[in-house]
């Protein structure tokens, strides 16, 4: 199938498929005329990557996971280690977002929201302390 068909089948843009080819993640064969020819296996790999990216894995982690996916003698511990590292990163981000929410909520709650110019939100944003 051509790049447009592969993009549609994988739910990704043509630009993304070109990028993945450029970085060597999924490299389709070329026809004699130079056009890309994506196989069903290529599209399956693209779907795998799309799902992994949707779960927040980095491109490099996707590369590692795809390599492990293709390695039938892989150790599941290797896959679990990659997922575990990503899980730790997600949990850290969640904690950071919770702290961010509390800061914004505190500023929001302190603001009267009336006609006066005094505003704790503006003052908090202008503060040099973090």
Any overview of this molecule?
The chain has helices at 3-10, 14-22, 40-54, 59-70, 76-110, 120-126, and strands at 29-30, 36-37. The chain is mainly alpha-helical and 130 residues long. It has a two-stranded antiparallel ribbon. A hairpin with a 5-residue loop joins strand 1 and strand 2 (36-37). Helix 1 (3-10) crosses helix 2 and helix 1 crosses helix 3 (40-54). The longest helix is centred in the C-terminal third of the chain and has 35 residues, at 76-110. The protein is elongated. The N and C termini lie far apart (53 Å). The mean pLDDT is 95. Keywords: Coiled coil, Cytoplasm, DNA-binding, Transcription, Transcription regulation. It is found in: Cytoplasm. It holds the Pfam family MerR-DNA-bind.
Poorly predicted ranges = none
Tell me how many strands there are. Answer: 2
* Helical content class: 55-70%
Instruction: Give the class from helix and strand content and strand pairing.
Output: mainly alpha
Radius of gyration: 23 Å
What is the percentage of strand-forming residues?
under 5%
Overall mean pLDDT stands at 95
Q: How many domains is the backbone divided into?
A: 2
Per the principal axes of the C-alpha atoms, what is the gross shape? elongated
Q: Helical region count?
A: 6
For the largest beta-sheet, the strand count, sense and barrel status come to: 2 strands, antiparallel
**Spatial ordering of strands, largest sheet:** 1-2
CATH topology of the largest domain: Multidrug-efflux Transporter Regulator, Chain: A, Domain 2
**Do you know the CATH architecture of the largest domain?**
Orthogonal Bundle
State the distance separating the first and last CA atoms: 53 Å
Order of helices and strands: HHEEHHHH
* Assigned CATH class of the largest domain: Mainly Alpha
GO molecular function: copper ion binding; DNA binding; DNA-binding transcription factor activity
Keywords: Coiled coil, Cytoplasm, DNA-binding, Transcription, Transcription regulation
Pfam family, one: MerR-DNA-bind
Coiled coil: 80-110
């Amino acid at each position: 199938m051509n790049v447009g068909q592969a993009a549609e089948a994988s739910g990704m843009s043509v630009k993304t498929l070109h990028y993945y080819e450029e970085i060597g993640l999924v490299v389709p064969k070329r026809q004699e005329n130079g056009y890309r020819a994506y196989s069903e296996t290529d599209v399956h790999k693209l779907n795998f990557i799309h799902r992994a990216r949707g779960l927040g894995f980095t491109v490099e982690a996707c590369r590692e996971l795809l390599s492990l996916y293709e390695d039938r003698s892989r150790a599941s511990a290797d896959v679990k280690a990659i997922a575990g590292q990503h899980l730790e990163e997600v949990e850290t981000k969640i904690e950071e977002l919770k702290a961010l929410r509390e800061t914004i909520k505190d500023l929001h709650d302190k603001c009267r929201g009336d006609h006066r110019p005094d505003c704790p939100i503006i003052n908090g944003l202008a503060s040099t302390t973090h």
